[in-house]
Amino acid sequence: LHAPLHSFPTRRSSDLQVIFVRKKQTQTPVTMAPNPANNYVTVNVFVDENIQATFTLIDKLGRKVHTQNEKLTKGSNNITLYLDKFSDGVYAMVFENASEKIVKQLIIIN
Fold this sequence. Notes:
Largest sheet: 4 strands, antiparallel
């Protein structure tokens, strides 16, 4: 939400200071294939530095049905999640590290 801009009278234009605040909006590139998936899905994550990350599958009822912790190295990483024990349906695949959380939709058809 943005606050409305207000102008306040000043004696001199040199009294006015303008401050800009920009929120960093970069996001780690995360892709999954195949999607829809059956036995497995490969998650590709590109990171700028070595990090610890968590991959979590959440079912349509909001239950965490799988959690996998991984050490990712700088560059492109391929993580395989095995899906053969999960029922058909739509799941949320959550990628999380110390600085961000990214949610992707995953469809499982076994």
